[in-house]
Design brief:
This protein is an alpha/beta fold. It contains eleven helices and eight strands.
Length: 294
């Protein structure tokens, strides 16, 4: 009988499956990219699923408190926040952190091996295979930061903070706006204007747009970016359904950013100055195609 695993969100559910393979049955409570994860309320059957799990995989840091509320003593809890020492109030989007992914993968392999000791070698091999794919991502991130030493971005929400930090980006999101987005409050007109000027004056190379946290303010900012020929990269919080797993999703985002910077560089050296705008959907599509071969 496979180990019953329930994950609060599909990005960690995907990792739980990558490490457990055929010996785990993973259910993810939140998989939709159409809801605001921070406001998510589980249904009764979601709670039932969690209470029947042998292993509950959660993000922590206040992101999915509902997932670990009523766990019985017999359940094993694997939490990303606990793995890396993150607490409520820290940026909770931990699946974008290389440190958190590595710690979670190892903890999942250890947990499964304790529950099903006869398959310890299988889980160990799965972890080794996962590690080699993660190392490739880390290599790609280092190559990006070596090539683009002064890369900077701004974000409608700090969703991909850890990913962009791992890639060597500087976050130039205006402080006032950042404060309001981290407390889920509306930015002041002054903060919004400061952000728009940042985009109009090309003080960042890319705008990161959290597609699961939209408002009038974020629509204004993406509109300003498009008008100002600043590339916009749309990033959801939950893993999109067309991605095979967490690894290929992260990889597709790195490829999208690489494509955007390559296009900007081509546009700058091209005599045709009008070719500077970048369509993030094209780069996302090309990386998705690339993923399917991974």
């Amino acid at each position: 009988t496979p180990i019953e695993v329930v994950a609060s969100v599909n990005q960690w559910g995907s990792l739980a499956e990558q490490i457990g393979g055929v010996y785990v049955k993973v259910t993810s409570v939140l998989s939709s990219t159409d809801v605001n994860a921070h406001d998510f309320e589980p249904k009764t059957d979601d709670i039932d699923k969690l209470q029947q799990a042998q292993v509950v995989v959660s993000n922590g840091a206040g992101y999915d408190t509902w997932a670990t509320k009523n766990l019985s003593k017999t359940m094993v809890s694997v939490s990303a926040a606990q793995m890396v020492g993150a607490v409520e109030g820290d940026n909770p989007h931990l699946w974008f952190s290389s440190d958190a992914r590595n710690a979670m993968a190892k903890e999942l392999a250890d947990t499964y091996s304790r529950i099903m000791p006869t398959q310890k070698k299988y889980f160990s091999n799965k972890l080794t295979a996962w590690n080699s794919r993660e190392k490739k991502i880390e290599k790609d991130m280092k190559a990006f930061s070596d090539t683009h030493k002064d890369a900077s971005y701004a974000a409608t929400e700090p969703v991909a903070y850890y990913l962009l930090s791992d890639m060597g980006f500087t976050d130039n999101t205006p402080e006032g706006y950042l404060q309001s987005s981290s407390t889920n409050s509306e930015p002041t007109p002054t903060d919004l204007q400061e952000f728009q000027e940042l985009l109009e004056k090309h003080k960042v190379e890319v705008l990161i747009n959290d597609t699961q946290s939209t408002s009038d303010a974020t629509n204004t900012l993406t509109g300003t970016a498009y008008k100002s020929d600043v590339p916009v990269l749309d990033i959801s919080e939950q893993m999109p359904s067309d991605c095979k797993n967490l690894t290929s999703w992260i990889r597709s985002l790195i490829l999208s950013l690489n494509d955007m910077f390559a296009e900007q560089s081509d546009a700058n050296t091209s005599s045709n100055a009008g070719s500077g705008s970048t369509d993030s959907t094209d780069s996302a599509n090309s990386s998705a195609a690339d993923d399917s071969q991974t």
